[in-house]
Amino acid sequence: MSVRRRPVVVVGAGPVGLTTALVLAQGGVPVTVLESGPALSTASRASTFHPATLDLLDELGVASALRAAGREVHEIQWRDLAQRVLHRMGYDALAGRTDHPYRVHVEQSRLTPLLLAALEVHPHAEVCFSTTVFDVRPRGDDVVRLWTDGPDGLRTPLDAG
Ligand SMILES: Cc1cc2nc3c(=O)[nH]c(=O)nc-3n(C[C@H](O)[C@H](O)[C@H](O)COP(=O)(O)OP(=O)(O)OC[C@H]3O[C@@H](n4cnc5c(N)ncnc54)[C@H](O)[C@@H]3O)c2cc1C
Q1: CA separation (Å) from 74 to 70, 97, 107?
Q2: Residue 87 Cα, ligand 1 centroid: separation in angstroms?
Q3: What is the pLDDT of residues 50-75, one digit of tens each?
Q4: CA-proximal residue: ligand 1, atom 16 (nearest)
Q5: Is the domain defined by 1-44+111-161 classed in CATH 3.40.50.12710?
Q6: Contact 112, 18 (CB under 8 A)
Q7: Probe residue for ligand 1, chosen from 3, 45, 127 as the CB with the greatest number of ligand atoms within 8 Å
């Protein structure tokens, strides 16, 4: 692991960490992601991606693959317990305000591999699995030392003194 040479460390390879890392990498910022798990999580979690999120993921180049893996939903319905539709709202009301006037239903675990693949294109980005960050020493807006427990044992791979 070569965290020492990298100015940004992201802790956690969930959707937030990988999205953050991809934004940085696409902006030319070297970044290392440290993930305690041995691989991306496959846990069943979030299922819905909203228009604003899809717009953001489109800028990162992963929205179309995510859309292809899921189901577009063009209307929200509110129902009572007898399943009668009480109210409905079409996403076309958002036309002109978003490039994605619909939501996409797809497992969160389908997004993270897309983000990881997009990240791996960048030589200045790195994702280290089985590496837990268990302490940091902050100084102002920076972290000057960061302790990890990973395949190489306990380390302080980021040490700016
Ligand atoms: C059962 C369940 C159902 C959900 N359903 C929905 C839903 O329907 N809609 C919705 O919008 N949201 C839903 N959520 C919430 C959604 O899953 C989270 O908002 C989302 O996962 C947050 O992403 P994240 O990247 O911040 O965190 P996470 O996905 O939790 O990722 C954090 C990562 O950081 C790693 N990590 C943590 N600590 C360390 C450390 N010290 N060192 C190294 N790595 C570390 C973890 O291993 C993990 O991989 C659900 C969550 C759960 C649990």
Answers
A1: 13, 15, 18
A2: 32
A3: 999 999 999 999 999 999 999 999 99
A4: 46
A5: no
A6: yes
A7: 45
